[in-house]
Amino acid sequence: PTTNARLSSIHVAAWPHVDAAILRAQKVQARWAKVPGDERVRIVLAIADAIAKNSTHLGNLLTLEVGKVPSESLGELQEIAEVAAAIGERRDECGGSLAHPIRRYESRDQTRKSLGWYGEERALPIGIVGKTTAFNFPYAPFAWGALPALATGNGVVWKPHPKATLCAMALTEVIDDVLRTNGGFSGLVTCVDAGDDEALTRRMWRDGRFAMWECTGGEAMGEALLKSLASEGTRRLGVRTLLELGGNNAVIVHADADVAQAVESVLFGATGTAGQRCTSTRVAYVHDDVYNYFERLLVAGYKQELRIGDPFTPGVNVGPVFHADAVGRFKRGVDGCIAEGSILVCGGRALGGNFVEPTLFRAPGFNHPPTAAELFSPVLHLVRYRSGQLPDVVNDINRGGHGLSAGVFTGDEDVFETVASALRVGIVNLNYGTSGAEAGENFGGEGRTGGGRQMGPNMFRTYTR
Q1: What percent of the chain has pLDDT over 90?
Q2: Res. 135: pLDDT tops 70
Q3: 416 vs 326, 392, 424, 429, 441, CA distance in Å?
Q4: End-to-end alpha-carbon separation of the chain, Å?
Q5: Is there a single domain that holds both residue 195 and residue 297?
Q6: How confident is the model at residue 97 (pLDDT cuts 50, 70, 90)?
Q7: How many domains in the chain?
Q8: Considering only CA atoms, which of 415, 332, 321 is closest in space to residue 370?
Q9: The CATH number of the domain where 401 resides is what?
Q10: Residue 256 shares a structural domain with residue 241
Q11: What keywords is this UniProt entry annotated with (predicted)?
Q12: CB within 10 Å: which end of the chain, N or C, has fewer?
């Protein structure tokens, strides 16, 4: 995306290639499921170590293919290490074997109890997990699901975004090498490049050999997946889905907030990855008492701290959007915001190639249509609110229907608890922005975001039956 130069030519899979990959994954998974849980976890940790050793190469490839600045590319790879560490800490919970019950319980029925009856719960692998990932984060969201799935005895077939295929192939090669040299499990994790072939993708979704589809992408993709599964009727009734379909995320900067801290978080949240994160900050609701100060500091940050350009150039912290279509979406989005009454504060221009200016708008008030839409560009709206209007702020955030992440900047925990309990989102951060994920905590949202949770306390149960 930085230069629009051709990087490579890739052979796009046809159905016979996909079919062979699924068959191989099934065959290897049947052996993998018999490996003791401790040994599976050891191999998963070895995979994470191998990825860390190759982080420079993988990070540079991510910067080259996707356009992230190197610090963000390496940060994405660090998330894989954190997921692996969480798996290692909780290895006793991974289950995945008939030989090791995860829970034993006594009967409450006195007759059964007198006979010495007891029950055991065992967690078995579900089989083959299908993964689709988006262009903007090709590594971390894959690992969020793939590593726990492997730890619990499953196989993974990965269909990456066609504009981040090199990253997917490189990561799969590292993983496969570890699996091959630790018991001959090559093919347990496989990458299939379906390109833009929608018919092939739908055929994969409907294939009965997949026990689960875990997908990161846009709402259109999620809707297409669910329709494909529904078209199969009861034949695919039992397939599991875990969808993460983006978010239109907001922060609230209350009257007692540390404004400098809030500005720092919002600046990165709105412009990191050129505004192309599912957790990017799209709207900041700022209390009237601190609004002018907040906007002044934020505008200074936009004008003085952001450097746009080739992400390989030292000092650059905003790279390109990922292709020409995204530039067009940015232009249409900015024009649409202005037409709806948004007041341009700074930015707003396409700069040539795939580079755009991070853009700041003032919204005229609540119920402003552009603040309810996910533009997926570095565009931020500021909304001023007064004392007594927190319920209106919460309603304004909830009306859009996305429900991924929010941040509340306040020194009053009662304010935070009140707001957090009313927001229909999966993640609410206190005195922190909307971006990022914690390997030990749930990640996911509500409503149009898709539902379901990755990582967190149920990271293993998601992939077992």
Answers
A1: 77
A2: yes
A3: 35, 15, 14, 9, 19
A4: 42
A5: no
A6: low
A7: 2
A8: 332
A9: 3.40.309.10
A10: no
A11: NAD, Oxidoreductase
A12: C
Packed helices 140-151 and 70-89: angle between N→C axes, nearest 10 degrees: 20
Residues forming a β-bridge with 409: 253
pTM above 0.70, yes or no: yes
- On the question of pLDDT at 102 being above 80, the answer is no
Is the separation of the CB atoms in 362 and 345 below 8 Å? yes
Domain containing 61 equals: 15-245+450-463
Q: Is 72 a catalytic residue?
A: no
Within-domain flag for 5: no
Catalytic site residue from 72, 82, 214, 244: 244
Q: How far apart are CA 62 and CA 131, in angstroms?
A: 19
Residue listed under structure tokens 């699924």: 22
Give the model confidence (pLDDT) of 269-282 as tens digits.
999 999 999 999 99
**Predicted local confidence at residue 68, as pLDDT:** 96
Task: Summarize the confidence of residues 285-293 as an average pLDDT.
Answer: 98
Residue 2's identity, in one-letter code, is T
Asked if residue 99 has pLDDT above 70, the reply is no
Q: Residue 402 corresponds to which tokens in the numbers above? A: 């996305």
Q: Which two tokens stand for residue 362?
A: 């003032």
Q: How far apart are CA 371 and CA 350, in angstroms?
A: 21
Q: Which two tokens stand for residue 139?
A: 């590594």
Contacts of 85 (CB under 8 A, 6+ apart): 48, 439
Q: How far apart are CA 339 and CA 329, in angstroms?
A: 15
Tens digit of each residue's pLDDT (9 = 90 or more) over 357-389: 999 999 999 999 999 888 899 999 999 999 999
Q: Letter for the amino acid at 410?
A: T
| Whether residues 150 and 237 fall in one domain | yes
